[in-house]
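S.,

As promised, the 4'-deoxy-4'-aminopyridoxal-5'-phosphate run. Input:
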Amino acid sequence: TKCLKGGDFPKGELVHFGNVELSPSSGVLNYGQGLFEGLKAYRKQDGSVVLFRPEENALRMRMGAERMCMPEPTVEQFVEAVKLTVLANKRWVPPPGKGSLYIRPLLMGSGSVLGVAPAPEYTFLIYVSPVGNYFKEGLAPIHLIVENELHRAAPGGTGSVKAIGNYAAVLKAQSAAKAKGYSDVLYLDSVHKRYLEEVSSCNVFVVKDSIISTPAIKGTILPGITRKSIIDVARSLGFQVEERLVSVEELLDADEVFCTGTAVVVSPVGSITYLGKRVSYGDSKVGAVSQQLYTALTSLQMGLSEDKMGWTVEL
Ligand code: PMP
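Predicted complex:
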């Protein structure tokens, strides 16, 4: 394949939020050649602002760009662009404990292509927005339904990168689930329809007898940065953590289930519905392990505990 490599990312400019001009024949509009990232800036008690592991988002966007035949920004270019955008919007970072500034980098094929091919030109942009909790429940249990027919990713596809089209694939099942009162959808693997993959926008963990397990990264789920961080935090707290195939039977038999993601942070799961059967966890209370991991991660992100991992980046 002829993929653009490297590319030059000329210094961008800061402009007011507004519409982007695109050719009707742009690669992104016609063939979905687009990628995005999501990360957050937090305000600490002393008023300073920190980013959480932005170089991880840069690396993931580079992997995605390689898969989608797009030029890759360097880690330095990506992080610098994020920093400049957040600095220009610093006043929008909410006070500690009141939310965060969500940062959305986008990379897309903006050049014209009529036949299916990589676009000849690319656009990289970043916009930001203050956010509160992703699920209206906050740190209260969410309710998931296991999807048995529709899939978000197939082996060899783009499921392990943050391709925009992956999110188009979840809209139908997610809308149906929300209309029935569920918070979101949990996907199974498309081959056996038996092993857990992830939720529309977060990774999933199950806890049984104090052992924490999560689906291994095998090409169909997004390698979440929160997932990776929670694995390290849990191990540092003495938990045994396993990355492997996790079956839906294990999910139904778990002591505790929780989801992780930049937007959802750590969200405890209160119930799972699978093939019409509902299983509840922990009497609608937040599970002890979910609570412990949520507190450990958020205190580190907000500067309430010492950042022994070196994960926060001061602006
Ligand atoms: N899976 C999917 C499909 C997602 O969209 C996200 C959010 N980026 C995640 C998992 C969690 O990834 P992260 O912890 O990096 O936000």
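The domain at 142-301 is CATH 3.20.10.10 (D-amino Acid Aminotransferase; Chain A, domain 2). The first strand starts at residue 34 and ends at 36.

- D.
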